[in-house]
Amino acid sequence: MATADKTSRARLTAVIKAARDIMRKDAGLNGDLDRLPQLSWLLFLRAFDAMEDTRELVEEDYRPAIDKPYRWRDWAPNADFTGDDFRSFVNNELLPYLRGDLDGTGPKDPVLTSLFKEIHNRMLSGYLLRDLVSRLNEINFTSSDDIHTMAYLYESILKEVRDAAGDSGEFYTPRPVIRFMVQQSFLSLGESILDPACGTGGFLVEVLEELADKADTTTSRKRLHTDLRGIEKKPLPYLLCLMNLILHGVDTPAVVRNNALVQMTNEIGPASKVNVVLTNPPFGGEEETSVSQRFPAGVRTKETAWLFLLAILDKLKPGGRCAIVLPNGVLFGEGAGARIKERLLRECDLHTVIRLPQGVFAPYTQIPSNLLFFEKTGPTKETWFYEISPPEGRKGYSKTKPMRDEEFAECADWWGGKSREGRVENEHAWRVPIADIAANGLNFDLTNPHQGDDLAHRPPHELLAELIKTEKEILHLLEDLAKDLMEA
């Protein structure tokens, strides 16, 4: 059994490894996409019980969020409660209670009910399930530092879930990219901040950490938690996002499970608009016709990234700003895409485009990507481009050699602070007037003019890769044109 000592990160890591070894023995769990969610909801209950302990000590009007005998402390420590009886309790009493389905009773907090709506125990052996719970019960949370440690390790678990889900189109946004986008958005307390494709909550958690020092009172922290908003379509990332935020101290996360394009087009009026959008929307996919038809005919398309950009323009308050990850196809797109770009440039100042190097989102996709920063403050007059280069001697990134925070350092120094003052052109940065962009057919897929292009001295594999890229861009344009003709 656990002692009163805090669990170190190394000890916690060892416990989780042992827990995962136990799950590998159970016939009901097939791969990490089964094992990691199972571990996640049990870990969450363990950590939540520790937070309830703290609440009981500090809140005069404390009321437990979970009733007896469903609190972790009521059933988890009893090693004799095992086998079929234990599995039956988890399947037929505990989880139905947490879902609010047990004789009309359930947790006091509706967020918990929402969180567990689609949670099921997938383990077939009650004995292995008992072993797993006993292992997790060894984890002690006796201070906020322990909760922070748990949150840190939880982030690593979430990354593994996203790695395992990569083949199904759920791309993990590297933490350095998230951190750079948050920092260069220059956030303030009191601003409403939305991620309409929040996944497991990476952007929202980074915002919490960015503003933590400023939110130094109970009132300001509650306001910050209220101002953080998310939308997620898929059930597993939604579940993990709620758990992630709760473990980071957000009692009632303002996260909605819905198709963000439906959610945002349903919400109308000034009260629904936000100050800041930070997001990496899905791209390369297509939306159902019923979703694309929610948008005006002239800009109607099934390409998900285009629709997200359009919905964000409607979602921002006057003076609001956005940092968004978009593929190269959005930069050079024609048809409906060109008309969406026209609106973007007419209503917003697209002040900065960061060209990311190859492989930032490896191994999920090799599609070249960009970070767009814009403010809803009136028309674009000029756009700065900044090309991030991989470390010397490398052409790009991979899963085993990912992007690091240091690779954004020069760009952050060049940025010019919140007002973007003092920017100068250099080997990475160049400025393009809006007139030149318009004359180029609103094509933002621009190469760095400071980088030479001596074809005679470039290796054949580079030339071939560039040719393939160009052919893909042409194919993408033809596909967009075909869609526009079919929808006309």
UniProtKB/TrEMBL annotation:
Give the E.C. number(s): 2.1.1.72
Alphabetical UniProt keywords: Methyltransferase, Restriction system, S-adenosyl-L-methionine, Transferase
Name recorded for this polypeptide: site-specific DNA-methyltransferase (adenine-specific)
Q: Which family does it belong to?
A: Belongs to the N(4)/N(6)-methyltransferase family.
Gene3D superfamilies per UniProt: 1.20.1260.30, Vaccinia Virus protein VP39
Q: Give the catalysed reaction(s), semicolon-separated.
A: a 2'-deoxyadenosine in DNA + S-adenosyl-L-methionine = an N(6)-methyl-2'-deoxyadenosine in DNA + S-adenosyl-L-homocysteine + H(+)
The chain positions of domain N6 adenine-specific DNA methyltransferase N-terminal read 13-134
Query: Which leading EC class covers this enzyme?
Result: transferase
- Pfam families assigned to the protein according to its UniProt record, in alphabetical order: HsdM_N, N6_Mtase
Q: Which residues form the DNA methylase adenine-specific domain?
A: 147-451
